[in-house]
Amino acid sequence: MTLSGLLLFWSVATYGREPLNIVRWMILSLFGGLLFGGILGTLTLLIQKKDNLGIMNLGDKNSTAQFLSFSLILMVVCLFHRDKLRLPKAFFLLGFPLMIFFVLLCHSRAFLISLPTAIVSMFYLRGPKIAFFKALSTVGAVFIALLLVPFIRKEVETALAPGHDGSFISRYETWKGAILMWKTHPFLGIGPDNFQMKNIHEIYHLPPYASHGHNFFVNLLGEYGTLGVVSMFLWLVLWGFYAVGQKKRHLDPVYGKVLFVGVLLNLLMAGIAHPIWGGSGSLLLMLLMTLSLSPWNERTSNHEPLPAGGSESADIVLKNRNGTL
């Protein structure tokens, strides 16, 4: 609620002003809330001797990791546009290590694979190649350094190991159960409410640890059926069309593509093993989708340089901006 209140406050406070100010304060408010929430969650983890980090209303460890991973993707986009957003270097020097630290405390192994893949892909699309190789080297160096930490090394070693421990392969039984749900209710699925039936595990041969919204297959195929799959495919196509296909309208032609690919890789790769949406994660996903279509990146922005060709061309552009032509 505090995080939502901050976002709402700064949106209202900057209403009618420069769009970049709205984006800047929303980003600072978001990460300010995550900073305090993460510190409080870490203290709670230490005092109560919990196994995983869960930041209050963000939900359990997987939902928290999803929200933090999307936030890191947003931070990478902010890094690409640091000068335009006028964000201080301290924001990134402090933000990146803390967000990564919080993600690791969640012990949500799927994001150890999806998040680095998404970030490296974003640097590759953004260019130049030297930046991509720097990002790849940094991710590799951080990964090697983290392997020196015992609990991180165990997380990595068991990420793909079979067993009922939250690894990718251990989800195979839930995938089979989701396909069985779809076969029995192909059009609409069994619905999220029906998933709470007492004998649901016996009917669809699900393992005991499988719960509501357990992963991509259960979330979409089992609960919402063919209609859910088609609906998700359509909004992904529409989002991709506007984020990637409208690059001629953007000052940064690859901006929408970078954000779209980063979010999509993180969403679908981690979704193989963990929930792909939840209340908080869906809100942040909608914010990222909005920012990928943001008008502050359009050529009609006041930040676009005036065209060459004399004062007459400049007057025409200024009249267009002021709505007098």
TrEMBL record:
Q: Where are the transmembrane segments?
A: 26-47, 67-82, 94-125, 132-152, 224-242, 254-273
According to its record, what are the GO cellular component terms?
Answer: membrane
The protein's matches in InterPro entries, at most eight in alphabetical order, are given as: O-antigen_ligase-rel_domated (IPR007016), WaaL-like (IPR051533)
Keywords (alphabetical) are: Membrane, Transmembrane, Transmembrane helix
Compartment(s) of residence: Membrane
Q: Please give the Pfam families that the UniProt record associates with this protein.
A: Wzy_C
Protein known as: Putative o-antigen polymerase
